[in-house]
Amino acid sequence: MNSILIFLLGLAAFMVIVAGIGIFWAIRSGQFEDMEGPAQRILMDDDDPRIPRRTLKENK
Fold this sequence. Notes:
The chain is mainly α. It is built from three helices and no strands. It has a domain at about 1-30.
């Protein structure tokens, strides 16, 4: 019974350390610098002018 608890505590500690390293890396590499940019960029996206539009003559 004690060996299972020791194993689970060690596993939990390992997972916390890995998560902490991942968060530390993400902050240091600038992953959280611009949180609103991608959300605004999708709204400002213009239509692609290279896509041919149908004209009235083609619809008839």
